[in-house]
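#structure-requests
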Amino acid sequence: MNTVIDIGNTLVKGAIFQNDTMLWSEKAKPEVFLELIKSKISKAVETPNLLYAASGYVDPKWLDYFNANFKIYHFNHKTPLPFVNTYKTPETLGLDRIALVAAASKLYPQTNVLIIDTGTCITYDFISDKNTYLGGNISPGLDMRFKALHHFTANLPRLKRDHPATRPLGQTTKDAILNGVIQGVVDEIDQNIKRYKSEYKDLTVILTGGDQQYLSAQLKNSIFANPTFQLVGLNAILEYLLND
């Protein structure tokens, strides 16, 4: 049995795997997540393995619990990976992006894969059919764009994700912002997919992240939506470490 945990600044995500099968996954505030993990894991399980990644604060109580109940692995930029990484500054590559690429390597071997993560930022990461990570791009996510319009102007309201107006031209300021931001993101994603498809044959596209469900229905291109892709990648890295 494997346990993987991603400790962020505002949320913690975790999952339990039996081999490649996800038995349980959850995300919650840091102050309650440890109790969730404790309630799901039996101490009777022999030498369970745990891999954790941390971009947020790690409470010492978490490490005490990890050390007492698991053989632990700390995922960082020195961790061996199940794919070839050609990024020129690997120490600056986000651990979340690395985990997404690991998931693609595991689930879609010998395949060209574009992973699009629609979170705070929208990230595009590409792994080739030779199991080589070639890089990607980063742009502002939906909420960041809404915040920027409000913050850098005097009169535009602070909006959040909502359904855009049915008309292509917004006839209120609210609809104009919703149309501009949402359709701008959709067009950006579609155009990126089109660009990659023109260069790489048989491209598989994965959409994940907090806004994936909202955006997937609006995209013109064929995609696979997977909200737990990062956790799958963390488990793939842990399996690689265990079998290395």
